[in-house]
Amino acid sequence: MGSLHVLNHPLIQHKLSYMRADSTSSKDFRELLEEISMLMVYEVTRDLPTKTVQVETPIGPADTQVLAGKKLGLVPILRAGLGMVDGIMKLIPNARIGHIGLYRDPVTLNPVEYYCKLPPDIEERDLIVLDPMLATGGSSSAAIGFIKKRGGTNIKLVCLIAAPEGVARIQEDHPDVEIFVAALDERLNEHGYIVPGLGDAGDRLFGTR
Q1: DSSP string of 97-145?
Q2: pTM above 0.85, yes or no
């Protein structure tokens, strides 16, 4: 079963508190999401391989560590996942970015793909799927499934807030996928929103309703 990592770093939790507040503006919400995403990616990439290289310092030669050329890819789920990209790209500027767009069929309630554009070499990349809210887990599970059908194998899911129901869904559908969250909240309400959560991340991010 895929591991769940709750990143309780004080800086992450401090910024998340302001994101939850109903009084936080869209501008501040966007900035906080970018900052938290940047902080979270430190843990998400902790296991990246490195190699030793020698550099010349002003004093003399030094054996140092650099990334061993592992290819990375970011896959935000439209639209709220877009808010997580810029912060991560500041630390991993060479990552390739794919996009997945989903909507829920009004009859079956199943996620339907309406857009999917991924790097052509996804089978060679470590892929990080981005979605701020892991509620029922349906959209994230479907997105991961679409990636696997196109050849992706090394996949991590990064979310801001998760409900236990969403975590259970991902662990059941994709036991090989590690999940990273800043908070694991109480439950889903009757409308499928995370409690206490922070509302609709996409609406708050873009100032829509």
Answers
A1: E-EEEEEE-TTT--EEEEEEE--TTGGGEEEEEE-SEESSSHHHHHHHH
A2: yes
Residue positions annotated with a catalytic role? 104, 108, 200, 203
Instruction: Show the 3-state SS of 140-179.
Output: HHHHHHHHHHCCCCEEEEEEEEECHHHHHHHHHHCCCCEE
Q: How many CB atoms lie within 10 A of CB 166?
A: 29
Taken in order 45, 174, 104, 113, the sign of the CA dihedral is positive
- The rounded distance, in Å, linking the Cα atoms of 129 and 164 is 18
| Alpha carbons 30 and 106: distance in angstroms, whole number | 30
Q: Residues 183, 7: contact at Cβ < 8 Å? A: no
**By C-alpha distance, which of 66, 64, 45 is closest to 54?**
64
Distance CA 5, CA 16 (A): 16
- Locate 193 and state its tokens: 């929103």
Angle of helix 26-44 versus helix 10-20 axis, rounded to 10: 150
pLDDT digits (tens, 9 = 90+) for 149-195: 999 999 999 999 999 999 999 999 999 999 999 999 999 998 889 99
